[in-house]
Write a structure and sequence with these properties.
The protein contains no helices and eleven strands. 0% of the residues lie in helices and 46% in strands. The chain is globular, with a radius of gyration of 13 Å. It is mostly beta strands and 124 residues long.
Length: 124
């Protein structure tokens, strides 16, 4: 069982930046597939970005060029650097992980057995 703890959310003005962190319990294993999702009020949860076990990254079209995923394998932590934030980025952001996956191609949310509690990002 893997526990995920997100941090780094907050309130920023449009154009600002935030870096979200997702710390995973257990021994570091860079074969884990990790991803960030977000859910805005009244909307479905959507994948923001995924870092596959193959180190391939995948981003939602709406965040390409603004958001960047990275992972610290020693700290077993996934980061989401968010730049040039827009009001439409306002949402609860969730981290999720599973065993092996490729960063390429679609992957259903149901494929992720482990989820964090979320961290709120508000852009005004």
């Amino acid at each position: 069982h893997v526990q995920l703890v997100e941090s780094g959310g907050g309130s920023v003005q449009a154009g600002g930046s935030l870096r979200l962190s997702c710390a995973a319990s257990g021994p570091p294993d860079n074969r884990y597939c990790m991803a960030w999702f977000r859910q805005a009020p009244g909307k479905e949860r959507e994948e923001v970005g995924r870092l596959g076990s193959d180190d391939v990254t995948r981003y939602a079209e709406s965040v390409k060029g603004r958001f960047t995923l990275s992972r610290d394998n020693i700290k077993n932590t996934l980061y989401l650097q968010m730049n040039n934030l827009k009001p439409e980025d306002t949402a609860m952001y969730y981290c999720a992980t599973r065993g092996y996956c490729s960063g390429a191609g679609p992957l259903e949310q149901a494929a992720y057995p482990f989820w964090g509690q979320g961290t709120q990002v508000t852009v005004s």
